[in-house]
Amino acid sequence: MEMFCYQCQETAGNTGCVKAGVCGKKPVTAGLQDALIQVCRGVASAALGSVEGSDDFRAAGRFLTGALFATITNANFDDERLTALIGEGLSLRDRLVKRYGDAVEGGLPGAARWVPGGDLAEAGKKAGVLSTGNEDIRSLRELLIYGLKGIAAYAHHAEILGYEDDAVYASVMKGLDATARDLGADTLTALVLETGKAAVDTMALLDRANTETYGHPRITKIATGVRGNPGILVSGHDLKDLEELLRQTEGTGVDVYTHGEMLPAHSYPAFAKYGHLAGNYGGSWGRQGEGFASFNGPILMTTNCIIPVRDAYRGRIFTTGMAGYPGVEHIPDRRPGGEKDFSKIIELAGHCPSPDRIEDGEVTGGFGHDQVGALAGKIVEAVKAGDIRKFVVMAGCDGRHKDRSYFTEVAENLPKDAVILTAGCAKYRYNKLDLGDIGGIPRVIDAGQCNDSYSLAVTALKLKDAFGLGDVNDLPIAFDIAWYEQKAVAVLLALLALGFKNIRLGPTLPAFLSPNVAGVLVEKFGIMPTGEAAADIEKIMA
Ligand code: FSO
Ligand code: SF4
To answer: Over 90: is that where the pLDDT of 354 sits?
Structure first.
C-alpha cells in the first residue's frame, strides 16, 4: 500500500485510496499530510497546557486551523508548502512542550514527542490512518479529525476577517489531542458530538464575520453570461481575497467573475456595489477543467476545490491562502495591516482575450437568515394555506461521482409544493433549472456557501418558533444532503448537534464509518443513505 486516505466521498471503491488519490493526490503528498496531522496533534496537546486566550494559545489555534485546512481534499497538493508547514508546526510544538508540557492534564501523549526523522512522507504514512488497528476506534478518530478539518477551514476564514473564538480553538485542540490518546469508543463518540456543537459555533462565528464585514446578503440575480472585457475568475471560499481583488481591479477595464463557491459573494452589499463584478462563470468545482479553459483569463484559487491543473490554463492559474498546487504560482499572504498584491494577475488579465460565452442566463441567491427572516410571515402563511407542503434541505457539496445525477432528479421531480433549501456547491446540480416559485417564494432558496448551512439551520429554528413547535423535527422539513469533503462532515455534525434527525446522506455513506459507527449514527440520529430518486421523493414528501 503506497498511501491510505479515505476522507472524501470519491475515495477509491468507497474503501480507500491506496495507490494514488482519485483526487490526484500522490502518495508522497498523502504521507506529508499524514505527517502534518501528527504534528498538529502534538501542537494541540501541548497548547492545552497554555492559558486559553494567551498569545501562545492563539498562535497554536491559528496554526492548527490553517494546517488542518491545508489537508482538506483538493486544497493543497504542494509538497514544498506542506513540508514548510510541518517544519513550522514542529518548532511551535517543541516551544509549547517546553513551556507548558508539565501543565497538560494526563501528561503529553506520544504524538507530542514524535520525531519524524529521515523520510518525512514515509514517517507520516506510518503515523497515518492505519496506525490505529481497531476499526471502530479508527473510524471515530477519523470522523473527529474530519469534522475538525471542516471547523478549521471555517475558523480560518473567520480569522482572516479578524474574528476568533478561543472556545473554537480549544475544541480543535481537545479533539486532536483525543485522537492521540488511548480512549475508548464511548469517550470518542461523545467527543464527536461535542465537535458538532463546536461546528455550530464556528459557523455562527463565520456568519458574524461575513455579515458584519460585508453586510447581510440580499436576494440577488446573478448573471451567468459574459461581457466583452478581459476578466479574472475567482474560485474558492475566501471573501477577503475577492474584496481586495475587486478594489485593485477597479478602473482597470478588467472584469471579475466568480466561480463555484464564490457565487454567493454577489449577494453581499459590499461586493454588489462593484460594477465590474460581472457575473458567475461555469459550473461547480468538478467541472473546472472545461470552464477554466474557456475562460481565457487568469484564475485565482482562494481555497479548495482545485483539481489537477490542465495544460489549457496552466500558465494562468494562481493559488493563494491555504490552497496550493505544484508549479502554480502562489500569491503570498498579506502583511499585517496590508493587502495581498494581485498586480501580476491583473497585468496578465490585460493581455488575455475575454471569456468565451458558455451560457447566458441568471441564477438567484442571497437567501441568508436575515432575508428569509423578512420572508418568514409569507412562508408561514404559505405553509398554513397548504401551498408549501415540505422544505427539503439539499445543501452540501457537488462532486464527480456519476450517481450525483440523483440530486438533479430529486430537484426536478419533487412535487411543486416542495421548496428546496440549499447552500454549498451541491446547488449546481439544480440551480439553473427553472423550478418556478410558490406565490413569489422561489422553489430553490439558496443561502450561500456551505458554511451558510448555518443560515438554513437558523431559518429552520425560526420557523419552528413561528409555528410554536417544541421540536425542529416536527417541522415539515426533510434533509437530503450531498457530501464530498470534510467541511460537509462538520456541517453534518452541526446539524446533529442542533437536534435534526433522519438526514439522508449521499451519494454514498462515508467509507470512514465502520459498520458499528454507522450503526450508532443510524440508531441515534436516523441517518440513512440516499436511494432511488423516485422512492426517496415519496418518503421525503410522506
Ligand atoms: Fe463545495 Fe469544495 Fe464549499 Fe466543499 S467547493 S466541496 S463542502 O470545498 O466547501 O461546498
Ligand atoms: Fe482519495 Fe479523497 Fe483522499 Fe483524495 S482526498 S486521496 S480522493 S480519499
So the answer is: yes
Cβ–ligand 1 contact at 438 (below 6 Å): no
Domain boundaries in the chain?
12-213, 220-349, 370-541
Digit-coded pLDDT (tens) for 428-481: 999 999 999 999 999 999 999 999 999 999 999 988 988 999 999 999 999 999
Answer whether residue 95 shows pLDDT above 90. Answer: yes
Nearest to 340 by CA among 240, 237, 206: 240
Indicate which ligand has the atom closest to the C-alpha of 75. Answer: 1
Fold of 370-541: Rossmann fold (3.40.50)
Residue nearest to atom 5 of ligand 2 (CA): 73
Environment class of residue 23 by beta-carbon count within 10 Å: exposed (0-12), middle (13-18) or buried (19+)? buried
Residue 220: strand, helix, or coil: strand
In this model, does residue 117 exceed pLDDT 90? no
For 86, phi and psi rounded to 5 degrees?
-65, -45
- Give the list of residues 6+ apart from residue 343 with CB closer than 8 angstroms, or none: 248
Ligand nearest to the CA of 305: 1
| Cis peptide, bond prior to residue 507, ω within 30 of zero | yes
pLDDT tens sequence across 241-256: 999 999 999 999 999 9
CATH number of 220-349: 3.40.50.2030
CB-ligand 1 contact for 449 (6 Å cutoff): yes
pLDDT digits (tens, 9 = 90+) for 297-352: 999 999 999 999 999 999 999 999 999 999 999 999 999 999 999 999 999 999 99
Nearest to 363 by CA among 437, 425, 290, 280: 280
Residue 375 clears pLDDT 90, i.e. is over it: no
Question: How far is the centre of ligand 2, averaged over its atoms, from the C-alpha of 22 (Å)?
Answer: 6
C-alpha torsion sign, points 139, 140, 146, 147: positive
Q: What HEC string does 293-343 produce? A: HHHCCCEEECCCCCCCCCHHHHHHEEEECCCECCCCEEECCCCCCCCCCCH
Is residue 304 within 6 Å of ligand 1 at its C-beta?
yes
Taking the C-alpha atoms of residue 72 and residue 285, their distance in angstroms, rounded to an integer, is 14
* CATH architecture of the domain covering 12-213: Up-down Bundle (1.20)
Question: Are 220-349 and 370-541 the same fold in CATH?
Answer: yes
Q: Is the pLDDT of residue 376 over 90?
A: no
The answer to whether 457 and 368 are in contact (CB under 8 A) is no
β-sheet bridge partners, residue 258? 234, 280
Q: Which residues form the pocket of ligand 2, taking CB atoms under 6 Å from any ligand atom?
A: 5-8, 10-11, 17, 21-23, 25, 73
Ligand 1 atom nearest residue 449's Cα:
3
> Which set of grid coordinates corresponds to residue 355?
471569456
Q: Which grid cell sits at 518?
A: 454507522
Which residue's alpha carbon is at the smallest distance from atom 3 of ligand 1?
450
Mean pLDDT of the chain: 97
pLDDT attached to residue 153 = 98
